[in-house]
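I hope you will forgive my troubling you with a question about protein structure. You will find the record immediately after this paragraph.
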Amino acid sequence: MVHRRRSSAVGRPTIADVAKAAGVSVATVDRVLNKRHPVREETTHRVLQAAESVKFYATDLLKQRVRPDAPRRTLGFVLQERAKEFYQGLAAALTHAAQNAPGVRGRAIIEFASGLSPGAVIEKLNAVGARSDAVAVVAVDHPSITQAVDALMARGVPTFGLLTGLTAPNRAGYLGIDNRQAGRMAAWAIARMARHAGQVGLLLGSHRYLGHELREIGFRSYFREHAPAFQVLDAIVNLEEERIAYEATLDLMKRHPDLAGIFVAGGGMEGVIAALREEDRHGSLAVVVHELTSATRAALVDDIVTLVIATPVQLLAQRAAEAMIRAIDENGAERERQLFLPFELYTSENL
């Protein structure tokens, strides 16, 4: 039994704090916690959300009381390098979404691959797949990745491509933004915001990332159709490494004095931003990058970056958890799920 405690201005949150946050009485929270009398489902979930928001000490117990008979679902995720701010934020969002998915007692298992190599990803994919009911992975498209995905699917573990697609024939689907559309958006922005028509640099994380390939396709197709005065240069692969991206950007500006813009279609944007700062290219180039981080936010403010195309991380996490749970519940039904979310756009004026 959970006893009521008086609210205080200091110390850990109490039942009174939960009641205030939920907009209900202390007695209602007490009924939810101790199952004294029936409480409407809507009210129960409001109390749970309030308990989480104030970090109530008995939140885990409350979750069990709210969903005692709900099935357990373990959602596994393989992301890229742990040290990267974007993936840290995505991991937190996925964890929260799994724990709060409706109708289940969910949890997330998250592993970070040490790099883009198929071997590094497969090691984590197999480890996560052995402990999960469904998996989503950020991975390059490679025959060995395809084999690993097909093996998981054969064991009844639906496996999705996350942020970037997979060509594995038995994949469960794709979860992320429309990358071809994002590439066209980047080209639209550069064509309109560049100071002059000219050469445009393009940096990719890897040619084997389907998401990056689709961004490049969309980027080039827009210029061909609508802005032929611009010349998109050969893509530069930076392996999502900051140092490689930094050196490539310095070399790009040196070799192409007519440069009008740069599109960073994958990672490594911190290195690109560092090179632009070093060369004092404030506002002289139209620069489009992906994902809103502390580095890209500062670059927008300082007029180093023109536009950020961002994944709606919280929405992606929520919708991904829902799609994975549906795939589990359908128990291997052959249905590919393509979840395309609208991307977000940021300039210095809407941060």
